[in-house]
Design a protein that fits this description.
This protein is an all-alpha fold and 190 residues long. It has 5 helices and no strands.
Length: 190
């Protein structure tokens, strides 16, 4: 343990601060995104597999498509958040030539920011599609009057709500990634 503290004591204070910020931010971002990504994945899986009698309403498939694309990008973003922790470890290297440069560190943070922005855009497209569908369903037929011949696809289905809930979790996960990335960029340039 003293060897570890000896190697970090020779580091410049700014490098120590950036490494600490990358380590803390990376783990926080990794775990929050992982938990929200798993919850979203389970929700989508449940919506598609466990509710087989319910088919998505007209247009719900587009919302689900964008949601799944956002989930794929979130998986990549989780990997990049984990890479923050490896970058922090590399920054604490006692050999200056083995430490990543400020440009390399910035590039990694920017790459993660771009991934989260793309993922958030995809999930927002999915949320917009589902929001429009739910609004259309709620306006198309008054919920009070239920006719025996009513088309059930015209009513809001639990599957629609599941897709919206999964999208919401992913939007929060991508938002956390963006916030952590911006805080890390601020720390790198202080």
């Amino acid at each position: 343990m003293s060897n570890s503290s000896d190697s970090t004591s020779s580091l410049p204070p700014t490098v120590k601060q950036v490494a600490q910020a990358l380590r803390l931010g990376g783990w926080a971002c990794f775990w929050v995104q992982l938990v929200l990504g798993i919850i979203s994945g389970i929700i989508f899986l449940f919506a598609v597999v466990a509710l087989p009698g319910q088919k998505p309403g007209a247009g719900s498939g587009g919302g689900l498509f964008f949601a799944v694309c956002g989930l794929v990008v979130l998986s990549f973003s989780i990997y990049l958040a984990f890479r923050y922790t490896r970058l922090a470890r590399d920054l604490r290297s006692p050999t200056p030539s083995l430490r990543p440069s400020r440009a390399d560190t910035t590039q990694q943070v920017k790459r993660t920011l771009i991934a989260n922005l793309i993922g958030m855009s995809l999930t927002l497209f999915g949320a917009e599609a589902m929001g429009g569908i739910l609004l259309g369903k709620s306006l198309a037929r008054p919920q009070i009057l239920i006719e025996s011949t009513a088309n059930l696809r015209e009513f809001i289905q639990p599957l629609d709500i599941f897709i919206v809930l999964g999208n919401t979790h992913m939007i929060v996960a991508h938002f956390i990634g963006i916030v952590v990335g911006l805080l890390l960029l601020d720390r790198v340039y202080k």
